Amino acid sequence: MFCHLRPVRRLCLEKICPHWFLSSRTLSGAEAINALRPFYFAVHPDFFGQHPREREVNENSLKRLSVYLENLQKPGFKSLKPTQLTFYVRETEQNSSEGQEPFSTSGFRAVKFTLHTRDLLSTVLYILNSCSLSVEHIQSSNTNVRPQPLKEAKRMPDRPIKWDKSYYHFTGFKDPHEDPEQVSRMETTLTWQRSWGVAHRCSQLQSLGRLAQQNLETLKNAKGCTIIFTDRSGMSAVGHVMLGTMDVHHHWTKLFERLPSYFDLQRRLMLLEEQISYLLGGIQVVYIEELQPVLTLEEYYSLLDVFHNRLLKNRIPFHPRSLRGLQMILNSDRYAPSLHELGHFNIPSLCDPANLQWFILTKAQQARDNMKRKEELKVVENELIQASTKKFSLEKFYKEPSVSSIQMVDCCKRLLEQSLPYLQGMHLCISHFYSVMQDGDLCIPWNWKDGEAIK
Fold this sequence. Notes:
Layout: E1 11-12, H1 19-23, H2 29-35, H3 37-43, H4 52-72, E2 83-90, E3 108-115, H5 120-130, H6 136-139, H7 165-171, E4 189-192, H8 198-214, H9 216-219, E5 226-230, E6 234-235, E7 241-244, H10 249-279, E8 284-285, H11 297-313, E9 327-331, E10 338-339, E11 345-348, H12 353-391, E12 396-399, H13 405-415, E13 427-431, E14 435-436, E15 442-445
Parallel strand pairs: 4-5, 5-7, 8-9, 9-11, 12-13, 13-15
Antiparallel strand pairs: 1-4, 2-3, 6-7, 10-11, 14-15
């Protein structure tokens, strides 16, 4: 009696937008940020704390560079005035090669170059080459990229460079020595925050399609992003473009126009996370959507900034990299740190630094043990999901994000003890309540009771 419609969770924009919107060979704002992460890692002012002059030069140059990149992304721009920039580049293993200008005894050297480019891709390549940083991560996702000779900066040496592990940790790029697979280029995708029915989702897609027909140039700013239909418009803490379903086209248009400035804030947020990690012995700062309040990019940046300033005022003597491999999330609604069963630390943004140090050091090993158990539990969970899908011949079997792995494992084990032939061909969702969605998906709570699961 149910209408078995496959729920549309993620769609390519090519279904509703022009093909060139996705296949353009230029970089999007989000892709440019990721491509420039090794550059930001080498010149960020926070790494020049003992060298105020060089720090100030890099701060001013980064501001001018941000303006230049934003202007490149403005619809209808024709050309920009040549912009001369000077950066002091830190010595790292990826740029400490022979054939370059020597670094000073302080571990950095000055690099000067003039930007007179017309698109993001050529700008990113020029900056990286000027600072003798690799462009391999761009070439792997764009076959049209070729190293360009520079007039003002010396080219990189041809011999391969083995990069330090911290580079991959910071940039998010895959280490070729660990995973030789190339990273595929990111597509623009659509998703929904809620389990709305098919009719509701189709209406939202039609609205976005009309906007694409009316304002193509503005919509190009979202290439490479994840667009999520939700309750309010903006950019989420994880960098997703949020389209409020109650907003009119005017609000959506303004959001797409502002994306270049959001990308700049996203870049500064990632650097802020890295600085917090540096001050806390290498622990990774993460944002877990399923476990944290839904925050905009501005709200999350403000939260990180408050916590970072407290750390700077009260330096905690963690041994460098002693906490690598561990994770933490920041919360504004807690007053004492805690350790989650999944292995990450819950840290209040206003936590007392002294108490924080004691808590992390005493719980570090337990955190590592919890993270190991989490990985083992995830393997068991996936095996049980596959077994349940096969036994009951389900068309789709999934869980809501708020259902933990422990809860899902318990649910699957008890389901496998049942004989439920009427589930064949259905979409079954493990949730916290009983319901049937508009598109026919059947929801049952993870802690269902025998005799009540399906009637």
